[in-house]
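Fig. S4 source data, part A: sequence.
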Amino acid sequence: MSSGAQDPRALELRGRILRHRASASSDASQPAEPEWRAMKERGSVLGIKALVVFATMFGRWPAHLVLYVVALYYTVFSTRARRSVHRFRAHLGLEPSFFAAYRTVLRFAQCSLDALFHMRGKLEHFHVTRNGHHHLEALREGGESAVLLGAHLGSIYALRTQSRAEDLPLVPVVYTKNARRFNQVLSELDPSSTTRLIEIGDGGDVDFMLAIRERAEQGALIAILGDRTQPGAKTVEVEFLGERALLPAGPYVLASLLRLPVYFTVGLYRGGGHYELHCIPFADRIELPRGRRDEAIAAYAQRYADLLAEMARSAPDNWFNFFDFWKRDA
């Protein structure tokens, strides 16, 4: 990034980022350490690798059968997971039950295992349906970049593998510190995959933003998840499924700095080998006018929350936020 630091556009972006960080540092809405960040990863590298070996030897379906037992274990012993699923379903007007929590944990385990097959390019196991894919094809034909705004709903790996198969370069912006073991196994399966990741740092430094801009200028699609807050980062309050929740403001600030079109994307798992990919136009550009900046961010975040709620209703067992998602009064 040393040469990019001399680029006038890079210097301009650096200045805009620093001004944003200065304004955010005094914002009263900054959260403490989010609950999801405090959650420790379950399982060991050895256990994950053992499942990989089993899946390699016997195939995807026998490995999925093992997950029925694994998911049952975690559902029984994780009170937090059961409680979070129950509260989510209550917001949908659905009856909470142990079976519903088990089904959600099972779906999460199945999507995680399928990530191993996605990373190995074994697409013969899957049937993929696409909705709105022509938007991405138009970007590819024009050599243009965009921001893909996703969520912990369904599988980002299905989206990522499909983009690779169709020569649509995708760069996920991720936080991986509470999933180190799982990501270690994935990186061993596909060593080149880590070069296409940009990891969110705890400090949100300027070089991190410049790295994103560099990949965007190369025509890559920048994928970022918009449903989890970061410590010390600005948040925005929205209505989500009838109750107030906090979402990060960062994705909209990032998109405004990059001046790229934004699309809402999810990869829903429908069971069996069926994944359902959605790409919905979100905004031609994120505009954050002076004097109305917070109001504009709130409007974009609310639109995101509405789209997320719509997709969550269509696939409630794909909701993988296993913590207390909604804001609580002091």
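Fig. S4 source data, part B ends here. Confidence is low (pLDDT under 50) at residues 1-5, 24-32.
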